[in-house]
Amino acid sequence: MEQLFSIIFTSSFGYAVLRVTTPILFASLAALISDRAGVINIGLEGIMLSAALAGVIGSAFTKSALIGVVCAAIAGMIISLVLAYFSLDLKADIILTGIALNLLASGGTVFILFLVAHDKGISASLKSMVVPQISIPIISSIPILGNILSGHNILTYFSLLSVIVVYYFLYKTPLGLKIRAVGENPNAASSVGISVRKIQYLALMLSGVLAGLAGAYMSMGYVSWFSRDMTAGRGFIALAAEAMGRGTPIGTFIASLIFGFADALSNTLQSLRVPSEFVQMVPYLTTIIGLVLYSIQQTNKVKKIRGKKV
């Protein structure tokens, strides 16, 4: 235990927490935007996986990391539009549609990878470009804090900036107000001339772009290749983080950090000869505990409201 604490309370561990939090934060913000519009983007896992492959293929063929990230964002948006079409236009159950997209992405990405590069399971023959890391001039010179905050991938900083952008977008812009109005009461929003279907389409598109950036980070920042099912449940963890964050950008950010801490902890435990089965269980166990605490909190909240009415 002493050895574990000696590893956790280091700047390198803090750096690792931010590093592994990045895809979860992107995806949880994606879940937040769609949820505030009244639609649950359960297809985040499949969107991230598809975007990860699109980023690798795009950057490998163009030799540009920027184009690879753009390809990933576009792929994320396209998959979200498919989800929107089936759920909003064809009235299919959005949960079942999202699950179907996740399953399709799991096998479909492997099939597309084989068609493009004749690789099975991992993009060994594709030289993917990597989004560069940057050092922040002033912060990098600060003891301890500089080692934690400086030297990250550009997408990591963009994910932190996205928290502020999403907050401003949802609470300070007319479009953000419409999204929240549609999510809270679609009938009331429709009565004042707001197109509920249009707003939900837009929210899912924005959600897809953010999830696409999460996928791009997985294959162009976290590692430099694509492998089968490399998202490893992060899309579902992001949904849990958004729920624990009570549908607010700041709360979602804090919850994402908690899950990022659990993920970084599981990586650290591997170096301490802890059984691999327990190590792999840590992030998902944290998710279950978080959801249980969230459920208890919501139940108590409902009881208080009912008590006041009585």
Architecture overview:
- By secondary structure, this protein is mostly helical.
- The protein has 13 helices and no strands.
- The protein has helices at 2-8, 11-36, 44-62, 65-89, 94-117, 145-149, 154-172, 174-184, 186-191, 196-222, 234-244, 249-269, 276-309.
- The chain is globular, with a radius of gyration of 20 Å.
- The mean pLDDT is 86.
What structural class results from the helix and strand content? Answer: mainly alpha
Order of helix and strand elements from N to C terminus:
HHHHHHHHHHHHH
Helix content: over 70%
Overall pLDDT confidence: 86
Q: Specify the biggest β-sheet.
A: none
Question: How many strand segments?
Answer: 0
Low-confidence stretches: none
Q: What proportion of the residues form beta strands (DSSP E)? A: under 5%
How would you sum up the global shape?
globular
Distance between the termini: 50 Å
What's the number of helices? 13
Radius of gyration: 20 Å
Q: What is the quaternary state of this protein?
A: single chain
Protein topology:
Blueprint lengths: L1 H7 L2 H26 L7 H19 L2 H25 L4 H24 L27 H5 L4 H19 L1 H11 L1 H6 L4 H27 L11 H11 L4 H21 L6 H34 L1
Helix pairs in contact: 2-7, 2-10, 2-11, 2-12, 3-4, 3-5, 3-10, 3-11, 4-5, 4-10, 7-8, 8-10, 11-12, 11-13, 12-13
